[in-house]
């Protein structure tokens, strides 16, 4: 039997908000079985502070994945933390934050992986609940295509195309969420953008916390970051990281294969909406067995 997991203890961190530029304090807390992942905004009244990590609460995907509850409270830039929670097999946790967005940290999931590992992982006494994909579901928006199809494990394949820079052109990547693969293969891969986009965002009052310390910035055919890239294909690895985080808004691990051509936050949410709109395309089930080679953690 594969059991639900939570954090062993509470842990805190602080960092800058990517879009606000303000200091953000965040706390990760253990949660009981079947709680799932939830966010609590500590800077708003308690009666409108709780936001469940759910696909149907996604309200904006233009610059990040942003959730909004029935009271209108929002929390944004959640995808890198969600990816770390999924990658390390955390089913239940409470995330407290004193701002409308999570800290961007270094632009990857690695700092969140470190926090979770420092807090420790505690096995709980109820089986993990999976979402098994039963048939292929596909969404398309112009040249962007994302699909989910049946598979015995959780796996991700994606392709991006940026003809305007020789740094990327076309990159493909694959991740099979086996034991330890998330941390080893994609967790340290940072978000990226182009220099002209950064300038436009700042003129619009966005991206005020962005810097070369928390994002890869591309100017023509060069990387502006003094340290360069962490991986030659860091761009596609980060897109897969985003997909892992966005799909964890399903409310549990998805047992199936994700395929994305030019994917992004909007397409990732669209595929979840398409999946759950078709009750014949999925089912919930207990994770009966644990296989470290075919991780459902």
UniProtKB/TrEMBL annotation:
Entry keyword Methyltransferase: no
Cofactor requirement: Zn(2+)
Cellular component aspect of the GO annotation: membrane
Recorded metabolic or biological pathway in which this protein acts: Glycolipid biosynthesis; lipid IV(A) biosynthesis; lipid IV(A) from (3R)-3-hydroxytetradecanoyl-[acyl-carrier-protein] and UDP-N-acetyl-alpha-D-glucosamine: step 2/6
SUPFAM superfamilies per record: Ribosomal protein S5 domain 2-like (SSF54211)
GO molecular function, one term: UDP-3-O-acyl-N-acetylglucosamine deacetylase activity
GO biological process: lipid A biosynthetic process
Highest taxon of source: Bacteria
Residues reported in the UniProt entry to bind Zn(2+): 80, 238, 242
Active site: 265 (proton donor)
Short name of any one Pfam family annotated for the protein: LpxC
Keyword match Glycoprotein: no
The protein's Enzyme Commission number: 3.5.1.108
Class in the EC hierarchy, top level: hydrolase
Keywords, sorted A to Z: Hydrolase, Lipid A biosynthesis, Lipid biosynthesis, Lipid metabolism, Metal-binding, Zinc
Catalytic activity annotation: a UDP-3-O-[(3R)-3-hydroxyacyl]-N-acetyl-alpha-D-glucosamine + H2O = a UDP-3-O-[(3R)-3-hydroxyacyl]-alpha-D-glucosamine + acetate
Family per record: Belongs to the LpxC family.
Function: Catalyzes the hydrolysis of UDP-3-O-myristoyl-N-acetylglucosamine to form UDP-3-O-myristoylglucosamine and acetate, the committed step in lipid A biosynthesis.
UniProt-recorded name of the protein: UDP-3-O-acyl-N-acetylglucosamine deacetylase
Protein species of origin: Niveispirillum cyanobacteriorum
Gene, per the UniProt record: lpxC
């Amino acid at each position: 039997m594969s059991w639900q997991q939570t954090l062993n203890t509470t842990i805190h961190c602080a960092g800058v908000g990517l879009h606000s530029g303000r200091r953000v304090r965040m706390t990760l807390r253990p949660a009981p079985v079947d709680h799932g992942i939830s966010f609590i905004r500590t800077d708003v009244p308690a009666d409108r502070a709780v936001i469940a990590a759910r696909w149907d609460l996604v309200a904006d995907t233009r610059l990040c994945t942003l959730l909004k509850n029935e009271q209108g409270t929002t929390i944004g830039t959640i995808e890198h933390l969600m990816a770390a929670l999924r990658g390390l097999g955390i089913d239940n946790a409470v995330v407290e934050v004193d701002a409308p967005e999570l800290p961007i940290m270094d632009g990857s999931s690695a700092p969140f992986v470190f926090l979770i590992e420092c807090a420790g992982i505690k096995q709980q006494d109820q089986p993990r609940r999976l979402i098994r994909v039963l048939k292929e579901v596909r969404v398309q928006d112009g040249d962007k295509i994302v699909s989910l199809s049946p598979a015995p494990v959780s796996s991700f394949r994606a392709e991006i195309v940026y003809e305007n820079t020789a740094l990327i052109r076309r990159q493909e990547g694959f991740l099979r969420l086996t034991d330890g693969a998330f941390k080893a293969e994609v967790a340290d891969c940072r978000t990226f953008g182009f220099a002209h986009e950064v300038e436009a965002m700042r003129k619009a009052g966005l991206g005020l916390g962005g810097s070369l310390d928390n994002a890869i910035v591309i100017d023509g055919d060069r990387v502006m970051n003094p340290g360069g890239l962490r991986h030659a294909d860091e761009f596609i690895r980060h897109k897969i990281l985003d997909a892992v985080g966005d799909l964890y808004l399903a409310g549990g691990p998805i047992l199936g294969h994700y395929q994305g051509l030019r994917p992004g936050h909007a397409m990732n949410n669209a595929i979840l909406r398409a999946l759950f709109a078709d009750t014949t395309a999925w089912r919930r089930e207990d994770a009966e067995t644990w296989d470290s080679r075919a991780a459902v953690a």
